[in-house]
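Morning!

This is the sequence you dropped in the shared folder:
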Amino acid sequence: MRISTPLSFTVILLLTTTFATTFATTFEPAATRTNIILIMADDVGYECFGCYGSRQYSTPNIDRMAKDGMLFTHCYSQPLCTPSRVKIMTGISNVRNYSAFSVLNSDQKTIGHYFNEAGYKTLVAGKWQLLGAEHYKEQFRLKGAWPDQTGFDNHCLWQVDKLGSRFWQPLLDIDGDNKQFGKKTDYGPDVVNDYVLNFMEKEKSEPFLIYYPMILVHNPFDPTPDSESLKSKNKQRNFEDMVAYMDKLIGKVIAKTQELGIAENTLIMFCGDNGTNVSVKSTLNGVEIKGGKGKTTDAGTRVPMLALQPGTIEEGSVYDQLVDFSDFLPTCLDTSGIEIPTNIDGQSFAPQLRGKSGTPRQWMHCFYCSRPERTKPKQFVRNKRWKLYRDGTFFDIPNDVKEQNNLTGSETAEARVSRKKLQKALDSFPAKGEQLLKFVPNGR
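The structure's back. Tokens below.
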């Protein structure tokens, strides 16, 4: 069953102009437990992918995911990296458990814990930035969680307790040991991707979870191994090369599932952690789009998302209902036959992946306070059209994607009905962040 019709030209044009309720779902696990590979790219919006209409970037492997699987049109992240990582790993809105930038409190139960307890082999690889590394102020240093405290058996990560380079000649924490790569040809994303592939080879006969928050395509915008010139200073060109290289690495992961004969038993999901860097400009259907990273508008929060599982997800399907970052955790659990906890904000969209109607999300919630020591929180609830902030501002997003026309006081009857529903949803969350600048000792 096709979930919805493909993106029309009108919808694509609309996307380009600028860009919790808990549901415990009963799911019958397959005879062989489903593997999960959750890939999250760093700082890339949907305007950078051919499957969303781009002709500027080369993304054949991700485009093939859309052709062979499902494309999502309304997936929403947090506007910045650490807030998104905390939310996707815990299934909980930042208003309840976000402490500070670069920190995931060590008392939080993560996707790694749930799968580890269910007997899965677990791996996290890519970018961590959740402990409070050496370059942060002492107030935040080592105040978060170490990778092995979050339920992962193995890890290969950049920026755990130390910084170092992420791209050429990287410094990576591999299963608890910091390794400085010294050859000029050592490229961090390759090292991490090879670790992922080796893990898949090693654990192919056991159910596994791979959480892969990629190092690419965050600045600095350096040349990649495939760039025409390794000395290029053209940041825009280098960024485009980085997008292509990210796509190449994802293609290797997909190909590995086919090589190992586990493709049909592996759910692969891909998304971005927030909008593109604000210094990057892209063109989509003749419209120039400036990256919106760090902003609560669509340019900062509406991200690419695709899902692939041959034989389970219908080829070429499009899902045009809401997906919030808190939904990934319960969806992964649901897919794998693991009980969904009742104390999270996310809800599963696993039935929709399998062509069933499921329970589409009616609204999503965002609490954003990236650096609580110096920024004020922003909080909103939205559905596909209307968006209501905690301060009362109210927007019709399809007709005002840059949020320049506050409708408060001039709403139509239809808008007032939606506003009332969104206000009720907003009131179901705390008005203030419950954990801002509160740190839990990590025992080290």
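Headline: Confidence is low (pLDDT under 50) at residues 1-31.

More detail when I'm at my desk.
O.
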